[in-house]
Amino acid sequence: MKKIGFLSFGHWTPSPQSQTRSAADALTQSVDLAVAAEELGVDGAYFRVHHFARQLASPFPLLAAAGARTSTIELGTGVIDMRYENPLYMAEDAGAADLLSGERLQLGISRGSPEQVIDGYRYFGYQPSEGSDHADMARQHTEVFLQVLEGQGFAEPNPRPMFPNPPGLLRIEPHSPGLRRRIWWGAGTRATAEWTARQGMNLMSSTLLSEDTGVPFHALQAEQIERFRKAWADAGHDWTPRTSVSRSIFPIVDETDAAYFGTGSSQDQVGMLEGVRSRFGKTYAGEPDKLIEELREDEAVATADTLLITVPNQLGVEYNAHVLESLMTHVAPALGWR
Q1: What pLDDT, on the 0 to 100 scale, is given for residue 208?
Q2: Which residues pair with residue 269 across a beta bridge?
Q3: Which of 2, 296, 323, 338 has the highest local Cβ count within 10 Å?
Q4: CATH of residue 37
Q5: Alpha-carbon distances, residue 162 vs 49, 89, 157, 158, 159 (angstroms)
Q6: What is the spatial distance between Cα 130 and Cα 147, in angstroms, rounded to a whole number?
Q7: So what's the pLDDT on residue 272?
Q8: What angle do helix axes 317-326 and 23-39 make, rounded to 10 degrees?
């Protein structure tokens, strides 16, 4: 058995070829796809976060709205850029959205990806401290966020408060007790996966890895997961973490699928990203029997407990629900995922 979710970047464009032409479309369709996915038996609805872009950007209103329209599906992010976040305010938002959804949030966070603007986090009021860089700042924000999610008091109460206080130091409210164990880090290297384990976060392996050892993407990703699990065991945490990988998978079962994805599966891509040689995973496309054979060879998909299907959201809710239904019906059972 494997948990299967979808991951949407929430792109929108006013182009007449797009089914998602405005920010309102992207938001409302994201909720509608979560509803449709739950009805199909999909386990998770995950959303990417990008600032200064025609994409989804503010996750907590979206997660709360999706939580109000659904009842069982996990609701997550993949990922929130911690360079932009006030960790205390984020803890309040996350706690509220988690409680509203019945404690179904699975929050993926990270140091972020290449941006639309130069040092965009500075416009949000954040700047690395002297002697550190933007990645250090993201991890510093994360450290504070994880600490306050533990629910321990840290703030000195006013001796003459407007409302009565409980005894002792005060914590961030609302507090959702189980949320700390449902935080994931989006790791792009094997070393970062080991760091993630030491911090006690679940592993969300990136859609690209910012290193290349010459082996296929799925093999490098499987090694990343293996190193994460070993580091987790060495750290002595008292609970079992989860691991996820993302894939683009398109079963071709009708003429529309063939028109969109009939060229078949692609190959790994290797290129330079921010000056670092990086490896990108392939797209899987083909008739179900062919996909089943190809996916059996994917070592990372085999070892991860959670698979996120990246969806082309601008093709609309109906088509993306069709893609998910085809996967759940024609592919997942044959691979033992259902």
Answers
A1: 73
A2: 280
A3: 323
A4: 3.20.20.30
A5: 37, 21, 11, 9, 10
A6: 23
A7: 46
A8: 30
CA distance 254 to 322: 10
Give me the phi and psi of 71, to 5 degrees please.
-135, -20
Note down the domain range covering 202: 3-335
pLDDT at 274: 56
Question: Across the chain, what does the average pLDDT equal?
Answer: 94
- Do residues 15 and 21 touch, judged by C-beta distance below 8 A? yes
Strands ordered across the beta sheet of 208-209: 208-209, 276-280, 269-273
Give bridge partners of residue 185 from the DSSP assignment: 109, 203
Q: Cis ω on the peptide bond leading into residue 317 (within 30° of 0)? A: no
How many domains in the chain? Answer: 1
Asked if 31 contacts 65 with a C-beta cutoff of 8 angstroms, the reply is yes
The answer for residues whose C-beta is within 8 angstroms of residue 26's C-beta and 6 or more apart is: 10, 11, 12, 20, 54, 55, 56, 313
| Residue 323 tokens, joined | 């893609």
CA distances from 248 to 31, 133, 261, 284, 326 (A): 20, 33, 11, 6, 13
Residues 324 and 37: beta-carbon distance below 8 Å: yes
What does the pLDDT read at residue 16? 94
- The identity of residue 281, as a single letter, is G
Q: What is the pTM of this model?
A: 0.94
The pairs formed by 268-276 with CB atoms below 8 angstroms and a separation of 24 or more are 268/216, 268/217, 270/212, 273/114, 273/208, 273/210, 274/114, 274/210, 276/210, 276/211
Please choose, from the candidates 98, 52, 99, the residue with its C-alpha nearest in 3D space to the C-alpha of residue 76: 98
| pLDDT lower than 70: segments of the chain | 268-280
Q: What is the pLDDT of residues 236-254, one digit of tens each?
A: 999 999 999 999 999 999 9
